[in-house]
Amino acid sequence: MKAIYPLKKLLLVILISAATFNYVQAADALKMELQANRIVKNINGKTSYVAASDAKTGEAVQYRAIYTNLINQPVSDVTVTLPIPVNMTFTGEAQPTSAQATVDGKNYADMPLMRRVNGKPVKVPLSEYKALRWNIKWLPARKSADVSLNTIVN
Fold this sequence. Notes:
The chain has helices at 7-17, 23-29; strands at 19-20, 30-41, 47-51, 60-69, 75-83, 88-95, 100-102, 109-110, 114-117, 120-123, 131-139, 144-153. It is built from two helices and twelve strands; from the N terminus they run αβαβββββββββββ. The termini are far apart. The longest helix has 11 residues, at 7-17. Strands 1-5-11-7-8 form a five-stranded antiparallel β-sheet. A five-stranded antiparallel β-sheet has the order 3-2-4-12-6. Strands 9-10 form a two-stranded antiparallel sheet. A hairpin with a 6-residue loop joins β7 (100-102) and β8. It has one domain (7-96, 136-153). By secondary structure, the protein is mainly beta. 12% of the residues lie in helices and 51% in strands.
């Protein structure tokens, strides 16, 4: 008889945390905290972040996910994904800059994404980006890593 991984638990982990890695450890090892903050620049050029509960059209919003390793051993090769909300356009700014992007939710590539038009490579418009993903190569025990992407409200 084949052993089947509890699919419901796996889907829940993917939907809630958008993190997948070593199927057995995923549910117990990582905690994800998602923040959405408006990006506000003052007259001196300093940037501050304010909760984005009421962001308006044209305002910049940063989505930041903090992944914390809850176990007493390191985890490796953690792939985390942040979708770009439908009413937002990605600005091209992401941290870490090693993020890969997708226009279809399946195929990821290094940024900037390129396509061929009339036989010539051209950049894919940022408005077509659907999600970003990062590979966290090593996350020590009881430590955190964060990823973020900036958007503009449509």
